Amino acid sequence: MMRILANDGLAEPAIAKLESAGFEVLTTKVAQEQLIPYLNKENIRALLVRSATQVNEELIDACPGLLLIGRAGVGLDNIAVAHARKKGLHVIHTPNASANSVAELVFAHLLGGTRFLHESNRHMPLEGDQQFRALKKAYAAGREVRGKTLGIIGFGGIGEAVARIGLGLGMEVCFHDTHRDRAVMTLEFAGGQQYDLEIQGFGLDELLSRSDFVTLHVPAQDRPVIGSRELGLMPRGAGLINTSRGGVIDEEALLAALDSGHLSFAGLDVFAEEPRPGVRLLMNPDLSLSPHIGGSTLEAQERIGLELAGQVVELLKKAD
Predict the structure, then answer these.
(1) What SUPFAM superfamilies does this protein map onto (predicted)?
(2) Nearest 5°: phi and psi at 215?
């Protein structure tokens, strides 16, 4: 019986699917420094991870019994993918299973930022009983998103899910992607009604200059996609959301843009230094913050697990 280690956890339906296919699934959380001896001792043939576990070249070389590495999520930046495939291992992931969950979090930050919910939720518990009228006045200058322009950087499955919600809210939606310059989006409504809308792609600079709000959906980068120059191209009072990867925004430049008032707010679910984001980010009143939970809904985790389990069964049953 092949043994699988789901080191960062796995949804129960996915475990049941793997077990019904004849695999033994272990969900012991093994510390990074103990992972190599554990994998070898327990004869683990497949290692399933999320973002917490690093699957580097050293681990791959030291564990010849591994046949498959699976990432329960979108990015593969915590896995030495090229090295693993060179060694003949299968490397799989679930790029679209969490798309809707991430997209909804984008709008949680966006709508919260335009209506100051991130800040008023900090102040109401402390001052709401004594300063109610003052707080009402302070947060009375919110903005509607209807009719505003939403710029999406990176137009894969998550970017498309964001576009659908934006279009449903009556926003003008545009995107920047190095692989496509136009897209036709199908919006589905209750009762089976569908509408096709064409979305236009732009160069990065033009997208930034025309967008009231910008959201990033790109993989990990060697350098920031958004730095001081790019922030300067955005209209004064714009908002910026990042639910993709830490480091794709220059955080120092972001803080400067917020402090100067050039940006009205930003929403961050990911940080350059995880799990210890900088204190200046955590304390900034113009930042809406969440702890890397974009794909962490019950529905997304079930879809991710089942999709990953299906790939494992398909690939490893052939090798059995």
Answers:
(1) Formate/glycerate dehydrogenase catalytic domain-like (SSF52283), NAD(P)-binding Rossmann-fold domains (SSF51735)
(2) -130, 140
Same domain, 181 and 251: yes
What band does 320 get if pLDDT is binned at 50, 70 and 90?
low
pLDDT, tens digit, 9 for 90 and up, residues 179-232: 999 999 999 888 889 999 999 999 999 999 999 999 999 998 999 999 999 999
Contact call for residues 27 and 70 (beta carbons, < 8 A): no
- Known catalytic membership, residue 274: yes
Sign of CA dihedral 74, 79, 84, 89: negative
Q: Note the pLDDT of residue 294.
A: 94
Catalytic one among 230, 245, 303, 307?
245
The count of structural domains within the chain is 2
Which one of the listed residues 24, 252, 274, 302 is annotated catalytic? 274
Show the domain range for 59.
3-95+298-319
Q: What is the pLDDT of residue 181?
A: 92
Bridge partners of residue 186, in order along the sequence: 196
* Residues 8 and 79 placed together within one structural domain of the fold: yes
Kindly state the percentage of the chain with pLDDT values over 70. Answer: 99
**Of the residues 90, 292, 303, 307, which is catalytic?**
292
Please tell me the predicted confidence (pLDDT) of residue 190. 84
Query: What pLDDT, on a 0 to 100 scale, did the predictor assign at position 95?
Result: 87
Catalytic, 245? Answer yes
> CB-based burial of residue 126 (10 Å sphere; 0-12 exposed, 13-18 middle, 19+ buried)?
exposed
What are the structure tokens assigned to 117, written together?
């919910």
Statement to judge: residues 186 and 200 lie in one domain:
yes
Do 8 and 104 have their domain in common?
no
* 42, 64: one domain: yes
CATH number for the domain that contains residue 185? 3.40.50.720
Residue 85 is among the residues annotated as catalytic for this protein: no
The confidence score (pLDDT) of residue 319 equals: 63
Q: Calculate mean pLDDT across residues 51-55.
A: 91
